[in-house]
Amino acid sequence: MNRLQSIAHGISRVGAIAGGALLLVASIVICIDITMRYAFSRTVGGADELSGYALAIASAWGFSAALLSRSHIRIDTAYVRVKRPVRAALDLLSLTVLTFFFALVTWHAWGVLRQSFVSGSRSLSEIEMPLVIPQGLWFAGLAFFIAVALLLLARALLACLTGNLDRLFELIGSKSAVAEAEEEIAAVEQAFEAEHKQ
Amino acid sequence: MTAAVSLIILLAVLGSSIAVAAGMGLTGVILNQIYSTMPLTRILGELTWSTTSNFILTAIPFYIMFGEILLRSGIAERMYGALVQWLSWLPGGLMHSNIGSCALFGSVSGSSVATAATIGVVAMGEIDKHKYNEPLFLGTLAAGGTLGILIPPSINMIIYGVMTDTSIPKLYLGGFIPGFILTVLFSLTVLIACIWRPHWGGEKISTSWEARIRLLPDLLPPLVLLMIVVGAIFFGIATATESAAVGIVGALVITAWRGRLTLTMLRDVCEATVRTTALVVAILVGAFFLNVVIQTIGLTQQLSRLITSYQLTPVQVLMAVIALYLVLGTFMEELSMMISTIPITTPLIVQAGYDSVWYGVLIVLLIQTAMISPPFGINLFVIQGIRGRGVLSDVERGSAPFVIALLIMIALICIYPDIVMWLPRVFG
What we know:
By secondary structure, chain A is mainly alpha-helical. Helix content of chain A is about 80%, strand content about 0%. In chain B, helix 9 packs across helix 21 (about 390-415) and helix 11 packs antiparallel against helix 22 (about 420-425). Chain B is globular, with a radius of gyration of 22 Å. Chains A and B meet through helix 1, helix 2, helix 3, helix 4 and helix 6 of A and helix 1, helix 2, helix 3, helix 4 and helix 7 of B.
């Protein structure tokens, strides 16, 4: 299971980086589009559509990365004030509801993808993108998210049954806002130190 | 009745620390089960696809990415150094540079957390060097950071604009003058505090006209980016999303020029962007679904009927909403607070006769207040995290005077709505 999770971690990281790269490329295409529009009064076409796909795909793949780093936002005002066993129960509840709701989303996303496949839909624009391509990548991200969520749920339940609450918190506990803030700061500090080395 | 039940379910679900995205979705599913015979969950696939592939929403990851690049680009430190020369002769010294740097950085960044973190890291070392009153110094950073979402661009304004169908360029224009006034109010707060207690203001910083002129070029990168990103929108050259894309490329060019552009840096930027984007989008998916359910079961109409039956005046409605946000803002995470409430409060306020652009700016001011209101204020955590010593209550204490400044600002735009509406009228 440990190995399974580190594989999942690896895949979701690659997914996130690829998603980010997709967004980066989209932003460059948009810049070219604007330049063309003003310099030559013509457009590349489809730049906005492509960046829309980039957002859908990147966020679907980002869901699992956020889950593995325990970053999905939770209101922990009550959470931090209850005893450890209650906290563990809340963690399990939160993950169960998250899995349930997004499984519902993924199930219906499959319907959307199947429909596009059956009817061979293309986007209503000059690039006439076969919708199966972006929707397929989007659905794959969602499906992977559900797989990761189920894996985490299984591991957390196991940890709970063996009475290893520390392990459970490590897997699915709510990360405090302070810890969140510290991650944001780490990136800035790295940049700050790099400047001073120069 | 429906309204009360809905609110109780939502609060119970979110309060039990269920992930906000799923909590809103679950509330939608439950309300759908109780009040509607139509199985609305069927639309979840189409709804998720159409909202997440919406071009306007791509502005969100673009601004997040823009911010991630900026904070790694090293422009903040030089900008701070230059502003020290220009602003620190005032009583309160560097604390004015803190606020000024936050305002300038905020005018290119769309996020308050990023603004507070970036300027905070640069400024933190100065407290001991110049013997400042620590809480007040920390307060200027926490409060100054909140300017990130008021001065355009602003990720929160984009979310508000998309969720309530309000023009994003008009929201940006609306935030401009309040952003400027609030910056002055923050500086005045420091000024008053340091005239009242001169020793809070630290040791005098030596400045000279020669240094002021020499360091001016360091202000150029943020000013150029500001011109590109905000100017393009105001003059109608590019949409908000397009200008964010241009900002990314501009920031990359500056980073490359500073010799900071590496593959590792780009990889970190991509990863961080997608993770933050996913959090926001997950909540939006839950919220959009809940929104559809709420509309189908007629919750908003019911609320407005309730208001009519109590014969509340528009001002009373407004005061009630402001009070609600001030209370929620103390303990609720700011982004979740905004996304989960605006679909309900905006129709009420618009129906009471207020402009949705004006209300968007008011919401942003209320979120800023929430960001520095304990116990949950994200900017308080950011600044305490950078400081890495002492207790959180120092930051809370130091931020308190700025909460008052924010409340004054809120009162100002309520009394003189034209502070917000003048620019959108002239340019719109």
